[in-house]
Amino acid sequence: MPSASSASPVIAVDVMGGDFGPPVVVPGALEAARKGNFTVLLVGDREIVGKEIKKHNCKGVFHEVVHASQTVLMGEKPSEILRRKKDASIQVACRLIKEGTAQGVVSPGHSGASVACGMFIMGRMPGIDRPALVSVLPSEKQPTVVLDVGANVDCKAYHLFQFGLMADAFTRAVLERPNPTMGLLSIGEEEGKGNSLVKEAYEVFKLAGNLNFVGNVEGKDIFSGDVDIIVCDGFVGNVVLKLAEGLSGSLSRILKRELLNSTVAAKIGSLLSKGAFSRFARFVDYAEYGGAPLLGLQGIVIVCHGRSNSKAVSNAVRMAAAFVEKKTNERLSANISANEELSRFSKAVKL
After folding, report:
1. Could you report the per-residue pLDDT of 164-195, keeping only the tens digit for each?
2. Which of 249, 269, 304, 351 is most deeply packed, by most CB within 10 A?
């Protein structure tokens, strides 16, 4: 198989993951490699993956198949997957990072398995207790970074502080915002609002001089675009993410239904507004954003939606390659090191 230059990223793709598997993941990964100067390692059953590859023109596309004999099912527990499925495609993909063969992993499969395999095979960054899933949500101005969106449902204040440190580096490196604003998701903007977790985390964030912390923010601020980064625990963040997905889908369906039932004049108006409707569809389409980066591991991991189409997979693979090229993990590590003393303090003292 052709290979890109030694300096270009190598991204391992869990081909067997997701609701649709190889017929969707393979073309998405190949399309990403076609557009970028990097190599994709297609991890999965060699025979099944090979059949899918033959359906596509791979001339000039840097790719290779890495065999994995087992597949993770959505209902399986992450602990069981780690113990009993050593040759599962997500485990094999993470070991490629550990061995130094690849720098990034993309999986549209079991998010719990991606988190567990990432932690126990690749390992966490020094100074990070728990990795966090990041979602980049559309807003009125520019996309809003929200984390954690599901990796950790029970958190301490220092976990939220570490999430903030990682999000700051991520936003600077990947979204290229030099001084991103950051807020804690709460039930009111005033200091002192929120549950005990938010109140304790607030006090820690106030002490971090190198973060542009603006205090508490509310749910309405996620889509206004007034704050670059919003930090919360994984339970709240996952509710926010699923609400956003459900609302965008419902709004699109309601809009289509209303246009079908509208007057002739309204239908003519909708035709004239077709471009605006197309832009709105792209705005709320999760495929445009690829997947959710899992920050805090010694390697790049992008977790895609289980229902990801080829476009979403392609964007996720390209995102992983961009992470590597922009040395995002190195920036995360530097930010964590710069705040190591405050992080230790927040773990030792209940504020």
Report:
1. 999 999 999 888 899 999 999 999 999 889 99
2. 304
Encoding tokens for residue 148? Answer: 């954690």
Q: Is the pLDDT of residue 86 over 90?
A: yes
Q: Is 259 exposed, middle or buried (0-12, 13-18, 19+ CB in 10 A)?
A: middle
Shared domain for 279 and 147, answered yes or no, is yes
H-run or E-run covering 338: helix 328-338
- The pLDDT tens digits for 305-314 are 878 889 989 9
pLDDT of residue 26: 95
**pLDDT above 70 (res 259):** no
Extended strands (E) in 149-250: 181-185, 212-217, 229-231
Same domain, 139 and 280: yes
* Residue 12 and residue 85 in one domain: yes
Can you tell me which residue has the tokens 């303090």?
345
Cα→Cα distances 29→96, 136, 161, 314, Å:
17, 21, 34, 5
Q: Which two tokens stand for residue 323?
A: 């992470």
Specify if 342 maps to a domain: no
More confident residue, 105 or 273: 105
- Our CA dihedral for 270, 281, 184, 129, rounded to 10 degrees, sits at 170
Domain of 64: which CATH number?
A: 3.40.718.10
Whether the CB-CB separation of 39 and 62 falls below 8 Å is answered with yes
Q: Are residues 202 and 272 in the same domain?
A: yes
Q: What pLDDT does 268 receive?
A: 54
What are the residues whose beta carbons fall under 8 Å from the beta carbon of 92, sequence distance 6 or more?
12, 43, 66, 67, 68
Write out the two tokens for 348.
């030792």
Q: Are residues 280 and 313 in the same domain?
A: no
Strand 291-295 versus strand 132-137 pairing type: antiparallel
Residues 247 and 304 placed together within one structural domain of the fold: no
pLDDT mean across residues, the chain: 85
